Each structure stands twice: as structure tokens, then as C-alpha cells.
């Protein structure tokens, strides 16, 4: 999804190359879930090496790209792309797509509201929910960047797609991917027009 977004918007891509079983790149240093049960018990030196080799380069690259775009005067819409399991601890998640954002940030609220509205029109069969199955203001890369770029026009949105769709038979994922891209394009254009600002030139696909 992140690769498709980056290609569609001619935007830079920062993609993880390791599993969360090694380290979760979307968690802050010190978060109890930064390391998995597999690596949490590893020696401190080993964990430090994992951070330096995999975690920091990913974070530094994402932050550098946002900083460069902000310095150019661009409006940055950063899409952090993830999937979620259809069922967790016996509880079925009743959504196909989740759009996560911080409710106190008008730019993020606006983009997600328009994205959901556009998806409802183009794909009414989809269950699209905001700040589900996780809270958009929780710990993560977007939350970190909101603090670092608090005085800028940074918009951080986490896209969550149900894995049941991704792995379903009949290739529904291909159609959904196209609808997500087209609806995001419409939402961004509508949001920019509403704000009387140019349409965003840097939509970051990130995974």
C-alpha cells in the first residue's frame, strides 16, 4: 500500500525492511512493545545494535524528508501505512479500513473526514472507521513528528487496512488499493481547496 501511494503521488517512500519480531519501528524508544518477546530478552548490547542498524536510520530518514518538505514551504500529508489482524484475542474487528489521526489537529481531522466521505461514495460496501482499531493520538511515528513539527502544516495520518481483505481470495485487495488512492487524492484536493492553500505536493507513503 505504501509503495502504491508513493508511486501514485510521486512522493518519497520510507519502508520498513524488518519484522516487528525484531523491532517495532512505529514505537518510541522505551516503549514496552518496542522489542518483541523474541528480542526483549536479548543482551542490552544486541538490542542497542538493532536500534542503530534498523530503527534509527528509518526514523531519521522519515524526519529528514518531512523537514525538507517543510523547508520548501510545502504542506506535508504523511500517510503511515499499516495492516491490522481481523481478530485479536477472540474479538473480531468490525472495520475494513481505519483512518487514525489526532482529533485536536484540524488538518488531520479534515483530511480523514473527507477521505472517509469519499470512500463512502466510491466504495459503500467498505466499513471505514476513524480512530479504529487504535487511537490516532497514541504512540507512533506520526505522534513523534507532530511534536517535532508542531508549528508547521504537518498532517500525519495512519492508514490501517484489515488483513482479511489483503489475503482474501478473488483479489479484492487490488480494487481496494485503487479506491484508497483515488479517494485520498480527492480528499487532499478538497481539503486544500477548503483551506485556500495549494494542493499538497508531498504525500509521504510510509510503512
Walk me through the structure.
The protein has six helices and eight strands, in the order H-E-H-E-E-E-E-H-E-H-E-H-H-E. The chain has 207 residues and is an alpha/beta fold. The protein has one domain (2-14, 75-206). Strands 1-8-2-7-5-6 form a six-stranded mixed sheet, with helices on both faces. It has a two-stranded antiparallel sheet with strand order 3-4. Helix 3 (106-122) links the parallel strand 5 (97-100) and strand 6. The longest helix has 28 residues, at 44-71. It is globular.
Strand order of the largest sheet: 1-8-2-7-5-6
Instruction: State the major sheet.
Output: 6 strands, mixed
Please identify the structural class as seen in this structure. Answer: alpha/beta
Share of helix, binned: 40-55%
The shape, in one word, is globular
Number of domains: 1
Span of the ends, CA to CA? 8 Å
Q: What fraction strand?
A: 15-25%
- DSSP strand tally: 8
Radius of gyration: 17 Å
Question: What letter string, H or E per element, gives the SSE order?
Answer: HEHEEEEHEHEHHE
What number is the mean pLDDT?
91
Low-confidence stretches: 196-201
Number of helices: 6
Write the layout of secondary structure elements.
Blueprint (H helix, E strand, L loop, with lengths): L1 H8 L3 E2 L29 H28 L4 E9 L2 E2 L2 E2 L4 E4 L5 H17 L5 E3 L10 H8 L5 E9 H4 L5 H23 L7 E5 L1
Parallel strand pairs: 1-8, 2-7, 2-8, 5-6
Antiparallel strand pairs: 3-4, 5-7
Helix pairs in contact: 3-6
Amino acid at each position: 500500500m505504501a509503495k502504491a501511494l508513493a508511486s501514485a503521488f510521486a512522493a518519497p517512500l520510507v519502508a520498513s525492511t524488518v519484522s516487528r519480531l525484531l523491532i517495532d519501528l512505529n514505537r518510541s524508544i522505551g516503549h514496552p512493545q518496542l522489542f518483541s518477546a523474541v528480542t526483549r530478552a536479548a543482551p542490552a548490547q544486541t538490542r542497542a545494535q538493532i536500534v542503530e542498524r534498523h530503527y534509527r536510520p528509518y526514523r531519521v530518514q522519515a524526519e529528514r524528508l518531512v523537514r525538507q518538505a517543510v523547508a520548501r514551504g510545502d504542506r506535508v500529508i504523511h500517510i503511515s501505512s499499516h495492516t491490522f489482524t481481523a481478530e485479536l484475542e477472540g474479538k473480531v474487528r468490525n472495520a475494513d479500513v481505519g483512518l487514525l489521526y489526532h482529533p485536536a489537529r484540524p488538518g488531520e481531522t479534515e483530511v480523514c473526514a473527507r477521505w472517509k466521505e469519499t470512500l463512502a461514495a466510491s466504495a459503500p460496501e467498505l466499513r471505514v472507521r476513524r480512530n479504529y482499531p487504535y487511537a490516532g493520538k497514541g504512540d507512533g511515528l506520526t505522534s513523534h513528528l507532530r511534536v517535532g513539527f508542531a508549528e508547521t502544516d504537518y498532517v500525519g495520518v495512519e492508514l490501517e487496512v484489515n488483513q482479511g481483505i489483503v489475503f482474501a481470495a478473488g483479489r479484492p485487495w487490488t480494487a481496494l488499493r485503487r479506491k484508497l488512492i483515488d479517494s485520498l487524492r480527492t480528499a487532499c484536493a478538497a481539503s486544500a481547496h477548503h483551506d485556500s492553500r495549494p494542493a499538497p505536493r508531498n504525500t509521504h507513503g510510509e510503512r
